[in-house]
Amino acid sequence: MEPENSPNPKSLIPSLKPKNKLKQMHWDKIDDIDNTFWGDIEHEKLSGQLKERGILEEVERHFAVKSTQIKLRKDLSGGKTSTDQPKKISLLTRDLAQQFGINLHMFAAAPVEDLIMKVLHCDKDILDNVTVLEFFNSELLSEFNETTIRNFKPYSWEVSDPESKPKKDPAELERPDRVYLELCFNLRHYWKSRSRALLLMHSYGRDYMDLLKKLRMVDEANASIRNSDSLRHVLGIIRSVGNFMNDDSKQALGFKIGTLQRLKFMKDDTNAMHFLHYVERIIRNTFPEYGSFVDELSVLLHVQNLSIEQIETESQEFDRQINGVAESISKGNLSDPECLHPEDYVLKKVASPLESAKIKNSLLQSHVKTTMEEYNSLMTYFGENVKDSFSRNTFYEKISMFVSEFKKAHIENVQKEEEQ
Predict the structure, then answer these.
(1) Range of the domain at 170
(2) Residue 168: inside a domain, yes or no?
(3) pTM here?
């Protein structure tokens, strides 16, 4: 059996302990030290040297936690004992208090003062946590009715006035109320703009790349349709055959893309084949050079579910958000550093990313304009109404469905021919 006091280099329990309670060091701990230099340091030996040289005794003397004398107020029951803890005050609704606990649970172990400083200093673990940033953007944290103002006002202070002091001690409040007070309430004149700016700095890069990816897909789809001579020849063949079949009153100079969806519903006299089967057979046997449109338009499979209007809306929202934050900083409620909390680093953190966001936004809006002009031109080229919302959002889908149905007709025709 191993001796009770055998050294353990990875032990978390020190063999030397202070006699009195000392101030605590808050580590950003490394749990696995196998591949670090820490495993090479002989902790017990080093601690022994520190003790021999009186360093630990000096540390204990200078970093002891001072005991505070609790003043007691006399009451009719004969007063309180020093072990009684005053009950914390809760002013928030139960639901909102729970929301603080849920969305900030990852910081539950941090003292409330440390958490408040993390937020004010825009620490990395705050800025990297989208759950926290989205919670701070909640309307519930930016709306202050008369009751809220009346309840929290005595605990608040003017952040722009260092000499300002609250009438009541904020330490009396429950943890969620204290966080709400120090951040949302005390910074209420710019909290919403601050939160919006930080969330945007977190998300603009991802949103930009997402929109850029969609725009490039649209560009590729536009080019594939524009460059497909074979598609236009196939449509011409369909028109010619259809006009041949129709009476004089039903002759067409052209037809809208939606017409292609009806081809499979026109059955032949045997009811075994539809018109698209015949179109496929005509192309394969007589105009094989035009069958390449199926491959030329394969890219449409990736964009058929894209909403063009949604892309436009998202691009407009991207532009609105970036311009909104820029305006808040240039002439809005983030424009005067003297009116911000003295510990608030928001302007420092936002300045550089905002410039990058503005450049990306300028490039994006230019790209959107070019892409949509080509899309509208292409729709017009195919006789579609660019002002019709349904037509704009289903243009790709209709062509893609025609390609899929044509391929299906090809397979069915070949199988039938092989069976004969």
Answers:
(1) 94-188
(2) yes
(3) 0.74
